[in-house]
Amino acid sequence: MLRTRRVSYLEGLRYQGKESMLAWVLHRITGLGILFFVGTHVVAAFFLNAIGDNISKSVTLWYESTPFQIFIYFCVLYHAFNGLRLVVEDFYPPVLRYRRELLWLQWLIFLPVFGLPAFLMVLSLFSGSA
Amino acid sequence: MAQGEPMQVKLKIRRFNPETDKKRWWGHYQAEVEPTDRVLDALHYVKWHVDGTLAFRRSCAHGICGSDAMLINGRNQLACKVLIKEVGRKITVEPLLGLPVIKDLVVDMEPFFEQYRAVKPYLVNDDPPPATERRQSIEERERFDDTTKCILCAACTTSCPSFWARSDYLGPAAIVQAHRFIFDSRDQASQERLQILAESNGVWRCRNIYNCTEACPREIQVTQAVAEVKREMMRRRV
Question: What would the pLDDT profile of A13-68 be if each residue is shown by its tens digit?
Fold first, then answer.
């Protein structure tokens, strides 16, 4: 069978899925975020060796900036926690009856693990030590 | 919304007639219904009193046949099960996503049934039939009780982003049907079904998004059934 897309992205996003659909959308966005980070890293390394280190330095400066570091920290951490939740669900299907509780538990663990270091990063940015 | 009092609701219905229209368009209608009426009653009102050309499917009108599954206010639901008081005075109705539209709210279900047939949704047992019946304990029957409730309305499959993304994905309804027979102690083709579902268009396309479970009008734990099939595959190393 020829493989085609049945529903466009825009039409699909109009569907009123609940929190699990949002979790999945966020999983995709954070996955792309990680891919973007790895991409900039590769680009910086390429410029360093191939062209010269001015472009490399500016790319590195950009992805090492605090806002981008916080963004990438969010992406990696969310993607990992959400992925772990999916692994647990696949290995122990009976827990799927408590999917909402599992999702809340995920956020309950995620928020302090993300929030505290992110807060410290912002703090060091404003104190000028970043 | 006072119970039992007639009220006006605004319906926005996605229309398409392949004989006259090049593109789909929105039809706007008013219907007089009661809060305890169903969305199907509002559609009937439009068809019988406002515009007789409106096309939609319905048969039993009591949530059993599954023929009036449609996208109501952005979610797949059966028009005969959703009450007006649950959706408010502004109602948007569209055909199911991902299936070819024949006319207005009527979609071609054949791609859906093709995927359903792919998992061999029938009992396979080559042993000679016993004098009475093929007996089963209460526990053995309980194992697949949830998935026997499926009415093939396609609400789950057409709410699934993995189904939207890949036309060859079997979809949750077909997996639910496979589950019903894989865990049936009388069946002898479970290995064959698991092999079909282990293909790249099978259960591993499921991303645990739960739209299917939320959409199922029979409250089948669809995602759990899919996960149980995945677990069985891992157990049998298929």
Answer: 999 999 999 999 999 999 999 999 999 888 888 877 776 677 777 778 888 889 99
Asked if the model's pLDDT at residue A1 lies above 60, the reply is no
| H helix intervals, B88-221 | 110-118, 138-142, 161-165, 172-182, 190-197, 211-215
Whether residue B227 and residue A90 make contact (CB cut-off 8 A), yes or no, is yes
Residues 6+ apart with CB under 8 A from B117: none
What is residue A41's predicted lDDT score, i.e. its pLDDT?
85
B92 and chain A: CB distance < 8 Å anywhere?
no
Cβ <8 Å between A90 and B74: no
Of B75, B187, B71, nearest in space to B124 by CA: B187
What does the block give as tokens for A78?
């969310």
pLDDT at B2: 61
d(CA B29, CA B42): 10
Which residues, including other chains, have CB under 8 Å from residue B78's CB and lie 6 or more apart? Answer: B63, B66, B68, B69, B153, B155, B217
pTM for this model (two decimals): 0.90
B146 confidence band (pLDDT: 50, 70, 90)? very high
Q: How far does the CA of residue A48 sit from the closest CA of chain B (Å)?
A: 39
d(CA A16, CA B161) in angstroms, rounded, equals 12
Structural domains in chain B plus CATH codes: 7-107 (3.10.20.30), 110-236 (1.10.1060.10)
* Residue A94 with chain B: CB contacts under 8 Å: 224
| A55, burial (CB in 10 Å: exposed 0-12, middle 13-18, buried 19+) | middle
Three-class SS state of B96: coil
| CB of A103 less than 8 A from some CB of B | no
Place of tokens 């910086």: A44
From CA B112, how far away is CA B114, in angstroms rounded? 5
- Smallest Cβ–Cβ distance between A7 and the set B98, B168, B228 belongs to B98
The answer to whether B40 and B65 have CB atoms below 8 angstroms apart is no
**ipTM of this predicted structure:** 0.88
pLDDT grade for B3, boundaries at 50, 70 and 90: low
What's the rounded Cα separation, in Å, for the pair A64 and A69? 6
